[in-house]
Amino acid sequence: MGRLDGNDQRLASGVGARGSLTAGHRPLATVLTLAAVLLAPPARAQGSGATAPEGPLSVSVTAGAGVPSGDVFRDVYGSALVPVVGQVDLRIGTSGFGVFGGLRWVSVSGEAVVENSSEPGGERVKFTMTSWRVGPAWGVQRGPWRFGAGAGLAYNSYREEWESARLSIEDSGIGAMFQGNVERRLTRRLSALLRVEYSLFEADPPEDTGLGSVALGGIDIGGGVAIRF
Fold first, then answer.
1. For residue 161, is pLDDT > 70?
2. Closest residue by Cα to residue 101 from 50, 171, 152, 26
3. What residues does 105 pair with on adjacent strands?
4. What are phi and psi of 136, to 5 degrees?
């Protein structure tokens, strides 16, 4: 756990029914129709065994495990995060190149030790960070498999709350991120997705904490689904 001077309790992490489908059940019919479209088997081109071309737009959601790179952050919050990522990918032309944009969200609670404090035990703290990212991407299709990679910039907004002191620290900054994806097509539109990410971002805590820059990036491994349009 992190240690701070008792005179300044700041940011130990350094940052601060049954029935038929009649007219009265149209919403249910709509949902079932959409499900049938998404889960339909891959269409075959007429007169050949080729699979119908995929759409250029993909929407994906993943969740998994994250390991923070900063020692100070790990001391307070541990080494296991559960990041959730939503992303949109747009392929441009037939070259495999495109762009992506998305959102990563993570929230975790921890305990910080405050030196010279009269209170026993540590202080309960909570950290939340939202990252908006965008950048170029590249991918290649090999049968039912698709392999992709991307790199870009992320706008990171974070907040740390000290429960007992009713203190919160908020700040934001720009960082870099890199990702690799593997998709396995399940149906014409739906794919299973594995994504690995590495992010770089450092926060600058207030000078009176006595801490230098604190790394808030790290490695994420997540699984989820992608729907292509």
1. yes
2. 152
3. 84, 130
4. -80, 155
Separation between Cα atoms, residue 119 and residue 195, nearest integer Å: 43
* φ/ψ of residue 109, rounded to 5: -110, 150
DSSP-derived secondary structure for 81-101: B--EEEEEEEE-TTSSEEEEE
Classify residue 197 as left (phi > 0), alpha (psi -120 to 50) or beta: beta
Residue tagged 């689904």 (tokens)? 225
Tens of pLDDT, residue by residue over 46-62, are 444 444 456 899 999 99
- The pTM assigned to this predicted structure is 0.73
Backbone angles phi, psi at 213, to 5 degrees: -60, 140
User: Residue 162, SS3?
Assistant: strand
Per-residue confidence (pLDDT) for residue 35, from 0 to 100? 45
Contact 185, 144 (CB under 8 A): yes
The three-state secondary structure class of 23 is helix
Per-residue CA distances from 120 to 70, 113, 222 (Å): 26, 9, 38
CATH 2.40.128.20 fits 3-7+55-228, yes or no: no
pLDDT tens across 173-203, in order?
999 999 999 999 999 999 999 999 999 999 8
Q: How many angstroms separate the CA atoms of 224 and 62, rounded?
A: 4
Which pLDDT score is estimated for 31?
40
Name the one residue in this structure whose structure tokens are 């740390």. Answer: 160
Domain ranges of the chain: 3-7+55-228
Report the candidate in 196, 205, 158, 204 with the shortest Cα–Cα distance to residue 177.
Answer: 196
